[in-house]
Amino acid sequence: MKMKKILAAAAAAAMLCGLTACNTDNNSSDPAVGNDVSPSISGGKVYNVGICQLIEHPALDLATKGFQDVLKEKLGDNVKIDVQRAQGESANCATIVNSFVSANVDLIMANATPALAAAVSGTGTIPIVGTSITSYEVALGDGWTGKNVTGASDLAPLDQQEDMIIEIFPDARKVGILYCSAEPNSDYQAKIIKQELEKDGIECKEYTVADSNEIQAQTQAAVSDNCDVIYIPTDNTFANAAETVKNVVVPAGVPVVAGEEGICGGCGTVTLSISYESMGRAAGEMAYEILVNGKNPGEMSVGYSETTKKYNKEICDALGVTVPDGYTAIE
Asked: Global pTM?
């Protein structure tokens, strides 16, 4: 479970796009950044890349930014990128992917699990690079390898996250685990964290939501059940509603340990975090290798990130949480 591989760096540029059901970015007129344009493609083929991002929130936005930055640095005017956001709806992901397939783009970047699932369902030939995917096996099943898919994972080692809970809150005897049951990767993380905590004699209870409308009630349920600590894994639903959690847990004095920095910055105390921008850049490097050097995505290993211990100073101060040396404040 100790997955510590350094993510590479890379980038992108952007172009016009327009699904009325989805948010879009239009950056095709941006100048190329830097002078690292590959001489082998300068003045030659223009690559069309479609990005399907599940929802707009800081973590996924950073992954998209890192991916774009890499391709922009590498390819300059030889790449056009169509960024479309699905407003959190899986059906919109399918619509976006279908538009990319109809346009015969050269590569699809799928940002978050529903976007990846839609891309895999939509095409078996166009290369797909995923980002913000916790487990490709969980997202796509055991048979995904060897196909037209690769990418980078946002999974921080779960055993180390459990160690963090025990390190910061040694007196905790009951941990509530909050996550969205509609997100398979969240369920995967929750089950492993629960197993790890129970091995150390800590009682755990899961509090699941079907959508964001249930977050306040389930967070209040965890507080009312006298949970000493709440754990929230990487979860798109909670990442987009961290303020709702904060408004319940901070007045109640219950600390949250988060699976990623975006959630921690909104409602948490500490996290073992990866850099979503670096993860996106790694995916951009993969895309470059596929587009320019003809790499087969089915033969490329999933990338994992170095992790950093971070803390939310405002909430830690409010709750009187003492953070040991080795933690960096979230800016």
From this structure: 0.75
The tokens for 85 are 């956001």
Domain count across the chain: 2
- Domain presence at residue 295: yes
Domain identity same for 289 and 269: no
Q: Which amino acid is at 123?
A: T
Smallest Cα–Cα separation from 59: which of 258, 309, 256?
258
Query: Are 133 and 185 within one domain?
Result: no
Residue-wise pLDDT for 206-256, tens only, equals 999 999 999 999 999 999 999 999 999 999 899 989 999 999 999 999 999
Domain that residue 131 falls in: 23-155+276-299
CB contact burial 83-106 (16+ within 10 A = b; e otherwise): bbbbebeeebbbbbbebbbeeebb
Q: How many secondary structure helices (H) and strands (E) does the chain include? A: 12, 13
Say if residues 120 and 144 touch (Cβ distance below 8 Å). Answer: yes
Q: Which helix (DSSP H) or strand (DSSP E) does residue 151 occupy?
A: strand 149-153
- Cα-flanking dihedrals φ and ψ of residue 314, to 5°? -60, -50
> Where is 207: in which H helix or E strand?
strand 203-209
- Residue of 28, 76, 31 lying closest to 50 (CA atoms): 28
Give the length of the chain.
331
> Residue 11 carries which DSSP code?
B
Residues 292 and 230 in one domain: no
| CATH at residue 237 | 3.40.50.2300
Query: Which residues have C-beta within 8 Å of that of residue 163, sequence separation ≥ 6?
Result: none
* 257-285 per-residue burial string, b: 16 or more CB within 10 A, e: under 16: bbbbbbbbbbbbbbbbbbbbbbbbbbbbb
- pLDDT, tens digit, 9 for 90 and up, residues 77-105: 999 999 999 999 999 999 999 999 999 99
pLDDT over 50 at 321, yes or no: yes
Residue 262, amino acid: G
Are 218 and 208 contacting, i.e. CB atoms less than 8 angstroms apart?
Answer: yes
Q: Report yes or no on 5 lying in a domain.
A: no
Q: What is the CA radius of gyration of the chain?
A: 20
How far, in Å, CA of 183 to CA of 204, rounded?
20
